[in-house]
């Protein structure tokens, strides 16, 4: 479409400006100026700098800089200026000769971006803390798994050592049986010796009593060691079970740590995206 003069160009832009806010996903305000004054102004639902159609362009406004340079300027206006933060985009309007005849201005509300950035930063900080905690948990689970391996090894060695006591008890049992047999033979020989063997008979009787006590002690020790062996076997079973649990916990902790690190990276990306909006 060919426009006859500068006024037609500016009027066309003024007419179009009223529809811009409907196309924007964020709250925005739109204004159009010539080289001296505002020709159109459409505030947003929240964002409104109270510009007036027909009012002159303030000398300190960046619109003046755009009109002079003909270059687009994008600037962020802090909340302190108007009560809300917004991004101002000002571009020069040029005629068919390339001459600057006005400006087209868009102000985009940054309240959502600021809130999103804060949430993303809090989320990133939380994930960083969780990541550190899960790494410590994973290290602890790994150390626990290693300790469980050592405990299982100790339990197995204890079971082997208990098995070796069976040989010692059998040896003591054999010695006790031989001692009792010797005492019995000594008693027989003492009886044959009559009065002369009475003292030897007393010794023989004591040897048999000692043998009986030894045999009973071996029996008691054997029962104790048998119960101890059962308990060691139970400990081994529990250690095996906890070892399996500990290994799974270590693996799960590592997976959780990896997932948290990924989420932390995503949170950092979210911060960057929020700043781009």
Fold and architecture overview:
This protein is of the alpha+beta class and 277 residues long. It has six helices and five strands; from the N terminus they run H-H-E-E-H-E-H-E-E-H-H. It has a five-stranded antiparallel beta sheet, sandwiched between helices. Helix 5 runs antiparallel to helix 6. It is rod-shaped, with a radius of gyration of 48 Å. The two termini are 33 Å apart. This is Methyl-accepting chemotaxis protein.
**Count of DSSP helices?**
6
The structural class is: alpha+beta
What is the number of beta strands? 5
> Topology as H/E string?
HHEEHEHEEHH
**Main sheet: strand order:** 2-1-5-4-3
Beta-strand residue percentage: 5-15%
Give the CA-CA distance, first to last residue: 33 Å
Please sum up the structure shown:
It comes from Desulforamulus aquiferis. Keywords: Transducer. Helix content is 69%, strand content 13%.
Topology overview:
Blueprint: H1 6-17, H2 20-23, E1 28-33, E2 38-42, H3 62-69, E3 73-77, H4 79-82, E4 86-94, E5 100-109, H5 111-193, H6 198-276
Antiparallel strand pairs: 1-2, 1-5, 3-4, 4-5
Pfam families: MCPsignal
Protein name: Methyl-accepting chemotaxis protein
Organism: Desulforamulus aquiferis
Observed structural traits:
single chain; 277 residues; alpha+beta; five-stranded antiparallel beta sheet; 69% helix; 13% strand; MCPsignal_dom
